[in-house]
Design brief:
Blueprint lengths: L1 H7 L2 H7 L4 H15 L4 E4 L7 E4 L1 H33 L4
Antiparallel strand pairs: 1-2
Helix pairs in contact: 1-2, 2-3
């Protein structure tokens, strides 16, 4: 969600891209903000020039850390897969 908001500059556009309602997206962002005690997104209403949503420094940091975690999990999963299934990829009978 944060990635979509950051890329698209709009919570409405992010919600559409993620195939979810604006209300659902906003609810998840608000819930996370309440849990961590910090704002993740700053929104300027109006619909015209200068309106939209941007990630706060905390939101950017959270997104960066999430991506680092995701990369680490994928790398670890690939290593474990190779270790566990090594014998099944050889043509041993």
């Amino acid at each position: 969600m944060l990635d979509a908001i950051g890329r698209l500059g709009s919570m409405n556009k992010a919600a559409k891209a993620l195939k979810m309602s604006y209300r659902a997206l906003w609810g998840r962002i608000k819930s996370t903000e309440d849990r961590i005690g910090a704002r993740l997104v700053t929104t300027k209403a109006g619909g015209g020039k200068g309106s939209g949503s941007i990630l706060t420094p905390t939101g950017k940091r959270l997104l960066k850390n999430y991506k680092l975690l995701e990369d680490s999990v994928h790398q670890r999963a690939a290593k474990e897969f190779d270790k566990i299934f090594r014998d099944t990829r050889t043509n041993k009978k």
